[in-house]
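Support request, please re-run this one:
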Amino acid sequence: MSIGERIFAAMYDRMSKGNEEAGLGARREALLAHASGRVLEIGAGTGRNLGYYGEGVESLVLTEPAEPMARRLERRLEEEQRPAEYRVELVRAPAERLPFSDGEFDVAVSTLVLCGVDDPAQSLAEVRRVLKPGGTLLFIEHVRSEEPSLARKQDRFNGLNRVVARCNCNRSTLDAIRGAGFTITELERDEMQKVPSFVRPLVVGAATPA
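Re-run finished. Output below.
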């Protein structure tokens, strides 16, 4: 558990407060209204999504590999009141190695995660493996811009962004989702607010295993 990980976990909610209030929170709420059945969320962080899961959820499994984040999430689970209708479980595991059986979940959720995993292709392959046939991946991710000048800016600032925000701002995540054998069924493009221009491009959508 590095000092950098501890500092990032301690600052995460404060750093993201502005863009959550400027629209990202509403995006989470709208997306997660579609989550139902047995749900897996990868890279759950400090638990930003917890308040947005609805009555259709039967059980919720949260994975988080970073111990400082997992500890904060654990405290949040202990302190916050949640619907008694479903069980919530925290599992310390990276997205690249999910300790679950094939076809175990109806829905998988990834929000601002695929930019930070070590291996996006392996992470998505694992998500596809643990989803039931006909299951759904719900995602919100900031991605490489379609505008060439902004994409070049993302390339220039990616090293700095990895240090400050611990993620890559220039990943072609939609290509990675398709490359992992998913068909994208819903897609909206947007921009995050209250953040530098090179991390603003955002995609919100749903995908199913092809």
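Residues 24 and 181 are 27 Å apart (CA to CA). The first strand starts at residue 37 and ends at 41.
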